[in-house]
């Protein structure tokens, strides 16, 4: 559910913290997460191509960072 991703910390595969999920946009085809860090934000499609792991216990999402994502 949406509670599984809202306010979660987002990391890349190198364990670098990219920010926190501050908004969830429903685009029809898939969800898009707005990830905010230090005044910047970027949009992250919540699709298997990007999402490596959602750790519910640690409240963390690990993503595969693509060129130009942020």
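Sequence proposed for the structure above (70 residues):
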């Amino acid at each position: 559910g949406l509670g599984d991703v809202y306010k979660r910390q987002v990391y890349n595969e190198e364990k670098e913290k990219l920010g926190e999920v501050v908004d969830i946009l429903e685009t029809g085809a898939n969800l898009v997460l707005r990830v905010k860090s230090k005044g910047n934000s970027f949009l992250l499609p919540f699709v298997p191509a990007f999402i490596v792991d959602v750790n519910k216990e640690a409240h963390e999402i690990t993503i595969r960072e693509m060129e130009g994502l942020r």
